[in-house]
Design a protein that fits this description.
YacF-like; 47% helix; 8 helices; four-stranded antiparallel β-sheet; 20% strand
Length: 250
């Protein structure tokens, strides 16, 4: 099954983008290749760009605190395992405290590294990090894989508190609701959203054997899915009935 996710607001959109970048970074850093380590460093710069929004850290901390208050409200409920509840609340509190202890925006400590910032200023230029532009960076790429990896892990560590908080918040959001099966009749599905609930994320799972690509749109009132087929280097609307799983996470 292929999973597609669609955010209903800009805050969740930012969280998903950061999660994507953190996962990419996690795969690139352990590599032995200098090229992979180059793209790991570029990914760190991309994370800094996405996280540059002044209120992002406050949003994440607010969401952590909101979840903690919700979970604490379950205390005394006989249907809730207190040990599991304590574990989740403790994790939320630890993430809040760790993120609160980071000065400024994510990666702000890296902006004080002039060598890194010289690479960052060239990384957005096509082939801007060639050896004749940045000889010191070229020399760094010829160090041992272990040495480069140690540097990348040290630089990435400044972003870890944000990464762990984003992972936790998205996990709690995804686990909050269960999937149900629906059918796109004639290749199209539309559903009005129940009032009184503020949905934040749509999750759609579809069998890749169907050869269909969902184009999703939505707002606080309704969601719409149009099934498309990729043929002759173009996307064409499908008119076939198609079953898929849908989850609306509030």
């Amino acid at each position: 099954m292929i999973l597609y996710e669609y955010p209903f607001n800009e805050r969740i959109r930012t969280y998903l983008r950061l999660e994507h970048l953190f996962r990419r970074l996690g795969e690139l850093v352990p590599s032995e290749s200098a090229l992979s380590h180059h793209y790991a460093l570029v990914t760190i710069f991309e994370i800094m760009d996405v996280a540059a929004r002044a209120d992002l850290k406050a949003d994440v901390m607010r969401d952590l605190d909101k979840h903690k208050n919700v979970f604490n409200g379950y205390r005394g409920n006989p249907a809730i395992a207190e040990a599991v509840l304590d574990q989740v609340v403790g994790q939320l509190e630890r993430n809040f405290a760790t993120l609160n202890g980071v000065a400024g925006k994510a990666g702000q400590a890296l902006t004080e590294n002039e060598w890194l910032m010289s690479i960052r200023s060239r990384a957005g230029i096509p082939a801007g990090t060639c050896e004749f532009d940045l000889p010191a960076y070229y020399a760094w790429q010829h160090r041992s894989a272990a040495s480069r990896r140690a540097d990348l892990e040290r630089w990435s560590a400044t972003l870890s508190p944000l990464a762990e908080s984003i992972y936790l918040l998205l996990k709690l959001l995804r686990d909050a609701d269960v999937p149900y099966k629906v059918i796109a009749t004639g290749g199209h599905f539309q559903q009005n959203l129940p009032q009184g609930r503020s949905f934040q994320l749509l999750r759609l799972r579809i069998d890749p054997a169907l050869g269909l690509i969902p184009e999703i749109s939505g707002n606080r009132l309704m969601v719409s899915v149009r099934m498309m087929r990729h043929e002759a280097d173009r996307l064409h609307p499908s008119t076939d009935d198609a079953a898929f799983e849908l989850t609306l996470c509030a």
